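ok so for the tutorial part 2 we go from a plain amino acid sequence to predicted structure tokens. step 1 is just haveing the sequence, like this:
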Amino acid sequence: MKKNRPCSGHYVPLKPRPLTQGMTVDQIIESSMFSFNAGSFRKACELFANHVVQEKVRIGVSLAGALVPAGIGRSCLIPLIKAGMVDWIVSTGANLYHDLHLMLGYEFHEGSAKADDEKLRENSIIRIYDIFLDYDALLDTDTFVRETLRRERLNTAISSSADIHAILGREIIRIKPELKDESLLAVAYEAGVPVHTSSPADSSIGMNIAALMLEDAPLPMDTHQDINEVTSYVYDIKKRGGKSAVLLLGGGSPKNFVLQTEPHIQEVLGLPESGHDFFIQFTDARPDTGGLSGATPSEAVSWGKVNPASLSKSIVSYGDCSLMLPFFISYVLNKAKPRSSSGLYEKRDKLVNQLKNDYREIGNYKKR
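step 2 — the prediction. this is what the tokens look like for a chain of 368 residues:
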């Protein structure tokens, strides 16, 4: 006789099925991933495919680590953007800088983490763990960035880092149209997906912008405008009765920049809001060290970053993004229907003005 268990509704039987030849990625995930990190990974896949990819959900993605050099940009992020499943991005500048090398004829190569770095330096090879790149790629990419921005700063209104990345994406399409579908920046530009960086000065793109200042050719970019722009994406969809989702790939500054949109709305601007509605993070960072990279969704609730009513829609899966992302994206593309692009890049001024007007009418502005 079966015993009556308290909260029996929470008991879901684990029913793994034998793996067979020819199974798709989604079939494997649904057949064999039930517990521990495998279980959280499956739940993240199902949450994103079944609930996040909806027309009234706005999806922000943070991108940390060296994922673009590892091939994740081309293999995973570009297909996700093309399927309309990314509305806005915050990335380290390094990922975006490394996106440019292919356009200039350089490829990353499989190397060895045990290589002699002194010899690599002598042979003009740089190393990212087990990835090798010709040092000349850096020099040519630096030249490309400076020449492009030196010229386009006179033709384009630049307010935030999203404008810098749009300029570079547009230039890729102009000079290498045959390669545009292999560039994260070019694909994002064509889809109208704004790409921000939380620390513009902390990358080679930032160093080249600094060089333009020494040439007395500074760019009129205000990094604080990035704060208001990304916040306006979240505020707009929530004001219209939609939901906000965050997909956090790694941690670091991009994760915080995506999440701080809610404290900016609630704490600083004084506008009514309750936090992001969906939270999915893939990370290898531990929460017990106290760092932001490993901070959990429940901790984020205390800051107002995540809606407390949405903790059941918040998942952290621990592991290496370079390993998990190909399976995650494959699952999502197999299970979810593509969406139309929200085209936020061209809507930024309108959305920021809406944020500004509400701040002045009902927010903390009136308390000054």
